[in-house]
Amino acid sequence: MALFDSHRPGFNLLLVLVVISIALMSLDRIGTRWVSQLDQGLGGATDGIVKAIHQPVVMARSVGQWFVERRVLQADVERLREENILLRGQMQQFVALQREVDELRAMLDGKASAIPSVLLARRVGHPPSLQGNLFTIDRGHGDDVRPGDPVIDAHGVVGQILRSTRSGATVIQLTSRDHILSIVLGDTGRTALLRGTGNRQLIAERVPERTAIKPGDLLTTSGIDTAFPRGYPVARVIAIEMDEAQGFIRLIAEPVADLERLDHVLVITEAPDAPAADTDAASDETLERPIITPPTDGNTVDESAVPDATGATDDD
Question: CA-CA distance, 120 to 153, in Å (whole number)?
Fold first, then answer.
């Protein structure tokens, strides 16, 4: 019996689709420009579908807000006004302190720290995924949102931009199995790699047994991976598992960000005084997905093994 008999159209169509899929995956692996543009175009279409699916939820929330008492709204407005005044006053002190720190670093021939800018974005939907650790926002590379940009909320780190289109972007949460970042272990100064598990918990493995860490300690970004600025809250330790045979401990933590109720997030973009990047290079970067590498063995973070702002390592 011939392979391409006319009475087997379903099999023939399946074979053609498999060949086309393999060809497209190969071209995407190579990283050709037109495949990246095709991926951007399809991403824009899927973002529109996700927004349309999520629109009934947005409408339901809007209708529910009409029934909120006016007194409650006035109280919220007054509270937010007071918080805004307080934060503005604290920000003035922060700017002065930042200037003093930069002057001291200049005396020591150090590099002045750049203040990153943040962009407010609204969550508009959830693209289909096995783990449910992805969501979309209404800001894209038209707003200078690029793959690899950190995403935070009012409490701490939420994740990173995975893919950016002209009108929106997809965020991968730090709880995803495919996400990893470099952290500082409490006040010890030691660094480790924190990876997601697909659920609420985060894990840092192969931490030296003598590390002075305990449940409740805060884990913050180290800045070594250049993806996240240093000092942002990430998670709190909830449990410590001992491995006396190997001389290491295993930290189990939970994110400090409120991942269950995310309506708005902040995208950390380049610092306002950062040097302008090359136009062609920046254009290519907005079309690529960050590659999140798996954790490496060892208790310290090797800069060559940690993904940079776009997830690529020096070995690549």
Answer: 10
Distance CA 217, CA 207 (A): 14
- Spatial separation of the C-alpha atoms in residues 239 and 23, rounded to whole Å: 46
Is the separation of the CB atoms in 268 and 187 below 8 Å? no
How many angstroms from the chain centroid is the CA of residue 142?
Answer: 18
**9-30 vs 33-65: helix axis angle to the nearest 10?**
100
Other Cβ atoms closer than 10 A to 15 = 13
Residue 62, sorted as left (phi over 0), alpha (psi -120 to 50) or beta, turns out to be: alpha
Please give the C-alpha separations between residue 84 and each of 81, 88, 90, 93, 257, in angstroms, as whole numbers: 5, 6, 10, 15, 21
Tokens of 277: 């990047």
Model-wide pTM > 0.85: no
Query: Alpha-carbon torsion 77, 82, 85, 87, what sign?
Result: negative
Tens digit of each residue's pLDDT (9 = 90 or more) over 149-183: 999 988 899 999 999 988 899 999 999 999 999 99
CA–CA distance, 58 with 49 (Å, rounded to integer): 14
Q: Where are the alpha helices (DSSP H) in the chain?
A: 9-30, 33-65, 70-107, 279-285
Amino acid at position 120, single letter: L
Contact 170, 160 (CB under 8 A): no
